[in-house]
Write a structure and sequence with these properties.
By secondary structure, the protein is mainly alpha-helical. Helix content is 87%, strand content 0%. The chain has 4 helices and no strands. α1 runs antiparallel to α2 and α3 crosses α4. The radius of gyration is 22 Å and the shape is elongated.
Length: 111
């Protein structure tokens, strides 16, 4: 095992333990827990057995294993950006609605 693999494994273990703690504290739901657990397990597999990405690349008809990892990473990042944009817009709308209600109630109370 290379030193860099060992360091990355330690980071992955830290995130997985943190993930379990967040689930126990009800800070994430079970669906999110499963998603992130699968992602971190996949990362651990790719770090410890890099040839596994080449196997997946051959199945998908992509030249190199690292290309598959990059493609999936980009797709995942775009999805997260899309998801966070929607969530941010929803939060902005909720804040706007709350400010309007508070303003209306304060205006009504002063009259």
């Amino acid at each position: 095992m290379l030193f860099v693999q060992f360091l990355i494994d330690l980071v992955i273990i830290f995130f997985v333990v943190n993930l379990f703690l967040k689930l126990r504290q009800n800070k994430i739901n079970f669906g999110s827990f499963i998603f992130w657990l699968i992602l971190w397990v996949a990362a651990a597999i790719l770090v410890n057995w890099p040839e596994s990405s080449s196997f997946v690349a051959r199945i998908l008809g992509v030249g190199r294993g690292v290309d598959v990892v990059i493609y999936f990473s980009i797709i995942l990042l775009f999805y997260f950006i899309f998801y966070l944009t929607i969530k941010l817009r929803r939060t902005e709308k909720e804040i706007t609605d709350l400010v309007r209600k508070i303003s209306f109630l304060e205006d009504k109370a002063t009259k």
